[in-house]
Design a protein that fits this description.
Length: about 300
Amino acid sequence: MLTTRLLQVHRAVVTEGTLTAAAASLGYSVSAVSQQLSQLEIEAGSSLYEKAGRGVRPTAAGLLLAQHAERVLAAVDEAETALADLRAGRVGRLRVVSFFSAGESLLPAAIATLRRAMPGLHVMPVVDEAEGALRRLRAGDVDLVVVVEPFARGAAPVDDLVRIHLLDDEYRLLLPREHPLSRRRLVDLPDLADDDWVVTTGPADYIRNDMVDACRRAGFSPRVVAEGYEFAVTQGYVAAGLGVALIPLLGLSAVQEHVAVRKLRQPPEPRHIWLATRPTLVDQPPVRRMIAALRAAAGDKR
């Protein structure tokens, strides 16, 4: 079998003209070069050299093989360079899935950071909720996901994925600007028992459930008068004076003019936001740098 090592030796002998010079250029002993040439002739099934004074010269078969060796070795060098670039993240693509509000608030800054560090890397962002994102990750369709999961820092499950805690996304109370409680810095949830409420439904139910659970712990069931599929829609209803709402901070990338954002004295448990990837990917430069960029972007949101 013709290997790249045998082809490299053959090319050196044809180029240098003597076994001694070829050995010196390759860093081999003369006997090692001679052994490799004998092996090469056996593999090729032809005589590749003939004596020429103190050196050797290639036969017709030797010249033909040298021409092909040049192309083969150039292709191997090109492939090795491409693989090195891919491993280092200088080229290639990184597929990242996030839920909508993280995609709006965290990903743009993280992608911009990664582009400056790895301009040849193409980042492909996709929007999906946790179940779909984790399914895509396990199937090998994506490389990194940003998901809301129901466990706090330090309580991640031990399974087939590597998880990194990114952020605890706290809830804020949204009030119409003219609401009597909008002048307070901290609001007690029981004081809103008689208010109308707006809920965010979206593709997942946890926002609605968190709001309802918080109100019930405060001693009342919220009177829901409107539903927004996205946080911006919910905020629009609040701005119009239809009711009050709870929205996590990442959903408040922009606050409308007629909305007051306030903290609750006893807020609901925050959304626990995690990064997840496969163990084989966690140390690859593109994934490692994107994790660092997302953590930096999340730190700016705290």
